[in-house]
Design a protein that fits this description.
alpha/beta, Rossmann fold, Conserved Hypothetical Protein Ylqf, Chain: A, domain 2, elongated
Length: about 270
């Protein structure tokens, strides 16, 4: 499976982001805490020409030990980092403090550009800061298509569509992005993606994986076993591997498999 997804609206969005940089005072860059490296778009390094805050989203789904390692790594590299949990509201006050530190002498309301890959949580963040449903929120990538200015308390926010980059350097990155729904499901091979994810989980999260599906050996055909245990069957008792793959991916994405991260800062154990 060779996953590549760069629809035309993403190319347009990238150009608009670069043009809109002159309109803002800072950039709020979002990354998914489960895949902190892969979910940072390397194709728009120009955003770092502005002061910025890196916001790690979906921390409630990520491995807390690995998240801490990433925070230490980022701060060692002098990046301003905020961990955010939209559901509980944890991290929002810290984000507001960081914005005030970055823009201490402005005589007007600060303007911030929100950037990130698809489905990383930009709209959820904006709605929380604005205190109302100002933008569309969805579980599928590609919900936000156009530029939107939103008023928040003490802040003007410019929302942008989630964008990827034209060519993934390796398919490992693509698998990770597909696993967290940053890439549309209909262009991925669910079975192959689930098998890749299961191999990763066996290596680093065998205990929660085995407990969730009552597995006894990592050497077995895990996708088939999970399909059998969850009743993913076709006529004649044949295991429906695609349906089993959907079960695995949905359990991972929802957190039913536990708090899992697929990357560490230096990659030594991946």
């Amino acid at each position: 499976m060779d996953i590549q997804w760069y629809p035309g609206h993403m190319a347009k969005a990238r150009r608009e982001i670069l043009l809109n940089l002159k309109l803002v005072d800072l950039v709020i860059e979002l990354t998914d805490a489960r895949v902190p490296k892969s979910s940072r778009n390397p194709d728009i390094p120009e955003i770092h020409g502005k002061p910025y805050v890196l916001v790690a989203t979906k921390t409630d789904l990520a491995d807390p030990k690995r998240t801490k390692a990433w925070v230490d790594f980022w701060r060692t590299n002098r990046e301003k980092v905020v961990l955010l949990d939209v559901l509980t509201g944890k991290g929002f006050r810290e984000l507001e403090r960081e914005i005030k530190i970055i823009t201490p002498s402005l005589k007007r309301t600060p303007r911030a550009l929100i950037v990130g890959i698809p489905n990383v949580g930009k709209s959820s963040l904006i709605n929380k800061l604005a205190g109302k449903s100002s933008t569309k929120v969805g579980a599928k990538p590609g919900i936000t298509r156009g530029k939107q200015w939103i008023k928040a308390a003490g802040l003007q926010l410019l929302d942008t569509p989630g964008i990827l980059w034209p060519k993934f350097a390796d398919q490992e990155t693509a698998y990770k992005l597909a696993s967290v729904s940053a890439i549309r499901d209909d262009i991925s091979d669910w079975e192959e993606l689930a098998e890749w994810l299961l191999k990763t989980l066996v290596k680093h999260y065998w205990i929660p994986l085995s407990q969730r599906y009552k597995l006894t050996s990592p050497e077995a055909d895990l996708l088939a076993l999970i399909g059998s245990k969850r009743g993913c069957l076709r006529a004649g008792g044949i295991i429906d591997r695609r349906q089993a793959a959907q079960v695995v991916l949905q359990d991972f994405r929802s957190g039913r498999l536990g708090r899992i991260s697929l990357e560490v800062p230096n990659g030594e154990d991946e």
